[in-house]
Amino acid sequence: MRINLSSVFVDDQDKALRFYTDVLGFVKKEEIPMGPYRWLTVVSPEDPDGTELVLEPDAHPAVKPYQTALVADGIPATSFAVDDVHAEFARMRALGVRFTQEPADMGPVITAVLDDTCGNLIQIAQRK
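Now predict its structure.
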């Protein structure tokens, strides 16, 4: 058994696609119309056949309270592995990304937390 999909709820699929590709560096894998929304996924360019991240519309009534509570408590919706948190932090900050946690040593990892502009906090993490 392996993970093939994971989701983040987003308030605007077009805005999310731009952020997740232009800023985070993922590439679009699937875009299938499904009524007013799309089945929209991105993948790592380093692993195009790997786990897909679904940019899931936040239309379900349970999503907004869930997202709001996570953000209020500073809890990331998910975490992405990077080779160098400090370099990614500097690169993304130069692009105007807002971080809620600057790079921090957390024992076996270094982490930082950013606002994805679509309703989520996202952690980036580097194993030491």
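Residues 13-23 form the longest helix (11 residues).
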